[in-house]
Every structure is written in C-alpha cells, then in structure tokens.
Amino acid sequence: MNFAATLKPDVAGWRARLAGLIGRRGEGSEPLPPIRDWVGGNEGRPAAIAGIDLALIWVTVALLALGLVMVYSASVALPDNPKFAKYTPTYFLGRQAMFIAVSLVAALITLQIPIAVWEKWAPWLFALSLAMLIVVLIPHVGKGVNGARRWLPLGVMNFQPSELAKLSIAMYAASYMVRKMDVKENFFKAVWPMAVSLGVIGVLLLAEPDMGAFMVIAAVALAILFLGGVNGRMFLLSVAVLVGAFVLMIVFSEFRRQRIFAYLDPWNPDYAQGKAYQLTHSLIAFGRGELFGQGLGSSIEKLHYLPEAHTDFLLAVIGEELGFVAVLSVVVGFFWLTRRIFVIGRQAIALDRVFAGLMVQGIGVWFGGQSFINMGVNLGVLPTKGLTLPLLSYGGSGILMNLVALAIVLRVDQENRQLMRGGRA
C-alpha cells in the first residue's frame, strides 16, 4: 500500500488514521510504519522523517553568517569615535564570533533536554526571569547604558533578562493554558491570572525602561492564549486593555509622545536632528542602497551618522551596502523561519502535544514579531523602538536566547518525528 499517496489528498482521513494508529501503540501492536511529513502543507514535497530539520538549521546559519559579516562592517569605523577609542576595529567582530560560539554550545546542550523537562520547570523558569528583572533594577548591580538599566554584567557578556523573559513567557503561557484547558471559557479562572503575571512583567520592563521587549512579550502571551482556545470575546477584551495601556503610556510620557510625532514627520526640522535623527539617517541609507547596494564596506551612514548601526539599525547598513535584494532576502528568510516554526508547532498539537505546540508557536510569534518591529522601525513603518534583529544584530544575550529557543524548536520537531514513526517522544 502506498501510504504517502493515500495521505496526500485526504488530510482529514490521515488525521483519523494517525489517531487510530497512535491509540493502538500502547496495545502491543507493531511500531507505526514510516510516514512522511505532510502536516502543514510542504507544497506536496515529502520531508525526511528521521534526523533533524536541516533546512531550518541552514537558514539559521545563513542569517548568523550574514549578521557576523555585517556587524563587522557596521562597527569597523567605531574606534574613530572617542567613545570607542579603546577598541580595535575587529573588537565587535571578535565578540560577536565568541557570542555565536558560546550560544551554539548552549544550543547543542539544550537539544538534549526532553520537552517534558521544560514543561515541568516552566513556572520556575518564569519565576527566575522575574527575579532577574528585579535584580537588574538594583543600583550598582544592573548595568545602565544610554539611560536604560537592562543588563547584568556576567564577565564574558552582559546578560539582558528581558531576553530570558521572552522564552520563559512562551513556556509559562503554554504550561498555563494546558493546566487551565478545562476552564478556558471562564475569564477570572483562565485569563485574569495570566493578565496579572503579564502586568508584573510590564511594570518591571517599563522601569528599565524597555517598552519594545514588553510589546514582544505581551504579543507572545496573547497569541498563546488565543491559540490555546480562550474565548474570543475575552481575547478581544484582553487586546483592547493592552492597547489602551500602551496608548496611556504614550499619552502620559513626553518622551514617547515626541517619538510618535517624530515618526509621523521625520523630516521636520524640529525632529530631524533630534527624535527622528536615527530614522532619517536610516532612510537615507536605504535610499543610497538602491537595488544592489553601494558594495560591502561602502556604507557612509555607518561612519558616525547612524547611531547603533551594529545593533538596532543593522538592516539599514545591509540596505545601503547590499541593496534591496539583500534586504528582501532577509525578509524572506525570517518569513520562512517563522512559518516553519509554526508548522512544527501545529504538528505537535496534531500529535496531542499541546504544551510543546503552544510553546513553539509562541517562539514563532517572538521571532516573527520582533523581526517585524525591527524591520518596520528601520524602514520608517513603525515608531523607533530599541529592539534588535534576531540572529543578526550584535549582542550576547540576544544571540544566546535566540539559538536556545531554536534548539527547543528542533527538539520538538525531533520528538514529533519519533512519535510519527511509532516511537516515544
């Protein structure tokens, strides 16, 4: 019997057949026959069931490699600035390479940990992230940069607790929804406790301040509530409350209000040399890049015109040096990565692994949402926010948590494949 041929045209029948096979697995039946990964619609192309998702790994490696090259290009002239006079031209290149090496080791270790362990420890990891968000606010403990206190000095790198909070909220919200599945229609039992947890994180992040990280974390939490099956009216009410909170933050903060005005009219002389300075120079960089760019290393905006060129505005340097084609490639790369993460999450849920599926989809929202915000800020589509581009921008804790999160996604995919072959996760 050609199982794959039967599987392709009848997805509903496949689901029923798979459920029956899994149901008989514990009754001493033979192991499930090897089947191919049609869940999520791989455009009719079967994927290898054994091993690991090589396409996801290669896309990740390509983004890391591009980021390493562009971080060097964007930072090579920084020692000309008195602020960075003690650094060598290759300082940021060496640091980024070290961050990637350490993060790859951490990812390989993470890949060995079963998802059941993460489900068990999800509430404790969330509590740890809250504790670190409190510690970073303590004077002389947390490190402040440009008026923001967001980092804990750990010797080899400065760790940003908000990066851990992004992963921990995906785990905690997924664990929470699994535990509250039978009361998900009740607002006070299902939504209210999660809203309080999110509110605590929001207060701590806004005290740093780091509104960008809070926006990503809130999006992850709300997405998992929605995907977990929370009542639609309750979900819309939660979104409305959160949007209202963001509006109030802007209304009652002169600094944030000025950023919105600068975003709406960046070329206004009142803003061009002030709140809109980064945005205007980012747009100039994209304009100079045109279709194929000025050439690698040929950016002018990185020569002390565009602040944070190696972190928040790395995409603008990519646009100036490598052009529209490279920017489009980065956009497509993140789109594919986010979509693939969601497919793996849907596969897990189809196999009745609700925690794993919701957690992975939360990670997908994190990667997709943060990359969208960063790209939107660089292109002037969104107001300026201090968010890096995952996998590309300079930063130790960002790269570390990005690769750990992707290792968890790969682990879920591995366990999915084992279950589909008739083994145990």
List keywords for this structure.
425 residues, disordered N terminus
Shape category: globular
Strands side by side in the biggest sheet: 1-2-3
Topology as a string of helices (H) and strands (E): HHHHHEEEHHHHHHHHHH
Main pleated sheet: 3 strands, antiparallel
Report helical residue fraction.
55-70%
Low-confidence runs: 1-49
Backbone CA Rg: 23 Å
What does this structure look like?
It contains 15 helices and three strands. The chain is mainly α and about 425 residues long. It has one domain. Strands 1-2-3 form a three-stranded antiparallel β-sheet, with helices on both faces. A hairpin with a 2-residue loop joins β1 and β2. α3 packs antiparallel against α13 and α14 packs antiparallel against α15. It is globular and about 60 Å long. The chain starts with a helix and ends in a 5-residue tail after the last helix. The relative contact order is 0.15. The N terminus is likely disordered. One of its GO terms (molecular function) is lipid-linked peptidoglycan transporter activity.
SSE topology sketch:
Layout: H1 3-7, H2 11-23, H3 54-75, H4 91-111, H5 115-135, E1 143-145, E2 148-153, E3 158-159, H6 161-179, H7 187-207, H8 211-227, H9 232-251, H10 254-264, H11 269-272, H12 277-289, H13 314-350, H14 354-378, H15 396-420
Antiparallel strand pairs: 1-2, 2-3
Helix pairs in contact: 3-4, 3-13, 4-15, 5-6, 6-7, 6-8, 6-14, 6-15, 7-8, 8-9, 8-14, 12-13, 13-14, 13-15, 14-15
